[in-house]
Amino acid sequence: MKQINCLLFDLDGTLLDSRDSVIDALYDTSARFLPGMFSRNDLLQRFGESLDDFMRDVEGRLPDAAAKEMFLEAYFTHIRQHQDKNVRLFPGVKEGLQQLKRYGFQLGIVTNKQYDLTVADLRLAEILNLFDTIVALDHVRAGKPAAEPVTLAIRRLRADPGSVLMIGDSRYDVLAAQAASVKSAVLEWYGKEEWQNPVPDRRYANFDQLIEELASVDLPRRT
């Protein structure tokens, strides 16, 4: 992986071990407003999808716009009420990000989460200061798997797309990277997957493996 000097990270399931907390919030809210529509496994298969896309899929099952607003309010209330105890970094992430900064990589967040929740998560995890830009769902017309969040981050960082690696955990991250014509990698914290369509360019079991490969890239270092 030569000439990579800009790393864009997804948040939930990539840096934060938050899959269960996100699914809990969505499952509890769906059970309240759309009883019987989704099992936990159904929602697990959609992990990484933007909330906007999820709502477009289900809003026809809700009686009116007011019910949609109540659904969203209940979901965000659940997330915020449990945020302090659910913000948990995967092993080695903070130290790894600090090492990447020392190596001279530009670091960005590209997430399908809302901006205020993203900043709160990063602050609680004590890694907010490590990122050069944050692109959240609020900043774009369409979240991942659309290319727009990735291309916006690239423009903000004034990066060459050929030097960018998008790192995530779900098919939405890989599809967004492909749509933006950048390389993709996945962190398989929750176990190896059978990737068929799309297929990421790189797969890592943990952050140490990612660091090991990136550390071998011949890059100009900051002094």
Compact overview of the structure:
This protein is an alpha/beta fold and 223 residues long. The protein has helices at residues 19-33, 40-45, 51-58, 65-81, 83-86, 93-103, 115-124, 148-157, 171-179, 207-215, and strands at residues 6-9, 106-110, 133-135, 164-168, 183-187, 202-204. The chain folds into two domains: 6-17 and 90-215, HAD superfamily/HAD-like (Rossmann fold, 3-Layer(aba) Sandwich), CATH 3.40.50.1000; 19-85, DNA polymerase, domain 1.
Task: Give a structural overview.
The chain is an alpha/beta fold and 223 residues long. The protein folds into two domains: 6-17 and 90-215, HAD superfamily/HAD-like (Rossmann fold); 19-85, DNA polymerase, domain 1 (Orthogonal Bundle). 44% of the residues lie in helices and 11% in strands. It contains ten helices and six strands; from the N terminus they run E-H-H-H-H-H-H-E-H-E-H-E-H-E-E-H. The protein has helices at residues 19-33, 40-45, 51-58, 65-81, 83-86, 93-103, 115-124, 148-157, 171-179, 207-215, and strands spanning 6-9, 106-110, 133-135, 164-168, 183-187, 202-204. It has a six-stranded parallel sheet, sandwiched between helices. Helix 7 (115-124) links the parallel strand 2 (106-110) and strand 3 (133-135). Helix 1 (19-33) packs antiparallel against helix 4. The longest helix is centred in the N-terminal third of the chain and has 17 residues, at 65-81. The relative contact order is 0.18.
